[in-house]
Prior knowledge:
Elements lengths: L6 H5 L3 E10 L8 E6 L1 H4 L1 E6 L7 H4 L3 E5 L5 E3 L2 E3 L2 E2 L1 E4 L2 E4 L14
Antiparallel strand pairs: 1-2, 1-4, 2-3, 4-7, 5-6, 8-9
Organism: Candidatus Chazhemtobacterium aquaticus
InterPro entries: NA-bd_OB-fold, tRNA-bd_dom, Tyrosine-tRNA_ligase_regulator
Keywords: Aminoacyl-tRNA synthetase, Ligase, RNA-binding, tRNA-binding
Amino acid sequence: xKSEISYDQFGELDLRVxxxxxxxxxxxxxxxxxxxxxxxxxxxxxxxxxxxxEWYGPGELIGKKYVFVVNMKYKKMGPEESQGMMIMVExxxxxxxxxxxxxxxxxxxxx
Length: 111
């Protein structure tokens, strides 16, 4: 278990629901999947990368909604930047995606 954080520290995270609208496999990486996420009007679309290529292909992500951290500093990934992070479960050494009900509006805040 990681160290305890305060309620205020947790409140620093901006967790939002976003819909993956496009995904691809960058030719410069064997581990990453690149995907574009629609967060609605307030945030718009963002590009993100996850090291899930061994377990998930682009077609498994497109059209589904997930929870993302949207206020992380951008991270250089190859020639681009990852503009956030998808929340996933790690189980038995592999990532498990957690889709959100499709009726949830893109950009909805998770509390």
